[in-house]
């Protein structure tokens, strides 16, 4: 028996892949926006927040950063229903990605906040701004600008990590590949195509985030030239 | 129906955790060796070697580890060999680890000031000697903390091999859950066991980082 690499079936199954791409993008967008928002909140707590809130956030960050995403996903999807929290596979996938990215972006953003010169806090206080206003109006934007490359990389990593959600039957790109290989027995081609899709997605995401950073942080434009 | 005590669950998970540790070691050591090759290509003077190393890193960092596992599993199978899961897992994790370590180490080599190269060159050392006697000893010192930090990613990466059927900690968690119907306890314990492996590594890496930062600021 000789093996022939063949992508002829692709025309028939492209809607499956399209749907998978839509789900992967949706998961990344929702997880990215809410996750980074949550991460910024946690970073504020760890760097400037009330002292009693810091230990629980630190425990959360360390727990998430030192366990695999897949175990977090299984814990949320299979483990939490035992306590009465039932949810669909997409909700569980979204929740897992938010919790995961929240912990990683917390550490990244915190590094950005802690690199803020002390004088900026003092200047804000001298203008009679409340601590939260100082954070919101003065500190956060340059802090995000400082760590934007690291945050972008982390978002790409989370997008690629989302391939695992196919294991709880969320219908992303990997799920599409699994589905097609079970129908056509062309496993190698199915995973080859989905790998190419992920590569394209990660390149687009990285370029898009670079562009977004360019748009969000006007002062970076003059610096980079 | 048999009842399972928490100890029964934990004992089975601990036995499977051995394979997580073994696979992590294999991937880390194998990946380190391949990473050295990629690193030397990446910083060589040959344009094609540099391009190859760049695309290698781009490819493995730009695609999910899960896809690499699947491609290794089904790809090696195309050669007509019946692929055991451990082989596909070892190969894929090694190549994946190599891409990340090569990129980390490249940063370390490039952090060595140009003057070190020039100084070594002016002592009439050839390229290999410059590398071996001057650049690498300094780069290796800088490389230790991030390398230790990346080992955490390797341990967590091994969890994905359960999907292609390698029985390690996560797979054992699924099997035990199917037998006990206690997903909350089992996956909670699985997470704690991963934490027990990864947290010391993370802490150690942080400690090394701080030690190095102190050494550098002290010298100034």
From TrEMBL, chain A:
This protein's GO CC annotations? ATP-binding cassette (ABC) transporter complex
> Which InterPro entries does the record associate with it?
AA_ABC_transptr_permease_3TM, ArtM/GltK/GlnP/TcyL/YhdX-like, MetI-like, MetI-like_sf
Q: Where in the cell is it found?
A: Cell inner membrane; Cell membrane
ABC transmembrane type-1 domain residues are 21-209
Q: Where are the transmembrane segments?
A: 21-47, 67-85
Name the Pfam families on file: BPD_transp_1 (PF00528)
Main location class: membrane
Question: What membrane topology does the annotation report for this chain?
Answer: Multi-pass membrane protein
Please give the biological process terms from Gene Ontology that the record holds.
Answer: amino acid transport
Concerning its family, UniProt says: Belongs to the binding-protein-dependent transport system permease family. HisMQ subfamily.
Task: State what protein this is by name.
Answer: Amino acid ABC transporter permease
- Which species is this UniProt entry from? Pseudohoeflea suaedae
Automatic annotation (TrEMBL), chain B:
Per its UniProt entry, which superkingdom is the organism in?
Bacteria
Family per UniProt? Belongs to the binding-protein-dependent transport system permease family. HisMQ subfamily.
> Record's Gene3D superfamilies?
MetI-like
Any idea which UniProt keywords this protein has?
Cell membrane, Membrane, Transmembrane, Transmembrane helix, Transport
Q: How does it sit in the membrane?
A: Multi-pass membrane protein
Output the GO biological process annotations, alphabetical, semicolon-separated. amino acid transport
Q: What InterPro entries does UniProt report for this protein, alphabetically?
A: AA_ABC_transptr_permease_3TM (IPR010065), ArtM/GltK/GlnP/TcyL/YhdX-like (IPR043429), MetI-like (IPR000515), MetI-like_sf (IPR035906)
**Which stretches make up the ABC transmembrane type-1 domain?**
17-205
Q: Which residues cross the membrane?
A: 20-43, 55-79, 85-105, 142-164, 184-202
GO cellular component, alphabetical, reads: ATP-binding cassette (ABC) transporter complex
Single annotated GO MF: transmembrane transporter activity
The record's section on PANTHER family has: BLR6398 PROTEIN, MEMBRANE COMPONENT OF AMINO ACID ABC TRANSPORTER
Q: Where would you find this protein in the cell?
A: Cell inner membrane; Cell membrane
One Pfam assignment: BPD_transp_1
Q: What is the protein's name according to its record? A: Amino acid ABC transporter permease
- Main localization is membrane
């Amino acid at each position: 028996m000789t093996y022939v690499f063949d992508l002829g079936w692709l025309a028939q199954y492209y809607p499956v892949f399209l749907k998978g791409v839509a789900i992967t993008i949706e998961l990344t967008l929702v997880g990215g926006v809410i996750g980074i928002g949550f991460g910024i909140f946690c970073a504020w707590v760890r760097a400037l927040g009330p002292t009693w809130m810091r230990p629980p956030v630190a425990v959360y960050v360390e727990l998430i950063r030192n366990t695999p995403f897949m175990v977090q996903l299984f814990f949320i999807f299979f483990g939490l229903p035992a306590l009465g929290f039932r949810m669909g596979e997409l909700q569980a996938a979204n929740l897992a990605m938010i919790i995961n990215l929240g912990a990683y972006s917390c550490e990244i953003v915190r590094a950005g906040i802690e690199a803020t010169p002390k004088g900026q806090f003092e200047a804000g206080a001298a203008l009679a701004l409340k601590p939260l206003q100082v954070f919101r109006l003065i500190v956060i934007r340059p802090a995000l600008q400082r760590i934007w490359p690291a945050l972008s990389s982390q978002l790409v990593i989370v997008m690629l990590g989302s391939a695992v959600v196919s294991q709880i039957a969320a219908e992303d790109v990997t799920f599409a590949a699994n589905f097609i290989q079970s129908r056509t027995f062309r496993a190698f081609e199915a995973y080859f195509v989905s790998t190419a899709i992920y590569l394209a997605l990660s390149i687009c995401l990285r370029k898009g985030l670079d562009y977004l950073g360019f748009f969000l942080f006007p002062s970076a434009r003059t610096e980079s030239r | 129906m048999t009842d399972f005590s928490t100890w029964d669950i934990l004992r089975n998970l601990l036995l499977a955790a051995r394979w997580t540790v073994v696979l992590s070691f294999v991937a880390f050591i194998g990946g380190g060796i391949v990473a050295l090759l990629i690193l030397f290509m990446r910083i060589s003077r040959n344009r094609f070697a540099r391009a190859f190393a760049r695309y290698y890193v781009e490819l493995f960092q730009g695609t999910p580890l899960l896809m690499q596992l699947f491609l290794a599993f089904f790809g090696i199978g195309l050669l007509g060999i019946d692929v055991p899961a451990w082989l596909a897992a070892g190969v894929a994790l090694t190549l994946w680890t190599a891409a990340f370590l090569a990129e980390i180490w490249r940063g370390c080599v490039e952090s060595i000031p140009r003057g070190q190269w020039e100084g070594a060159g002016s002592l009439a050392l050839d390229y290999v000697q410059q590398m071996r006697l001057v650049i690498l000893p300094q780069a290796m010192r800088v490389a230790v903390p991030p390398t230790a930090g990346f080992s955490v990613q390797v341990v967590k990466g091994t969890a994905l091999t359960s999907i292609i059927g390698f029985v390690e900690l996560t797979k054992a968690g699924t099997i035990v859950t199917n037998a006990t119907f206690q997903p909350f306890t089992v996956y909670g314990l699985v997470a704690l066991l991963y934490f027990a492996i990864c947290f010391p590594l993370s802490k150690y890496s942080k400690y090394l980082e701080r030690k190095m930062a102190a050494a550098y600021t002290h010298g100034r």
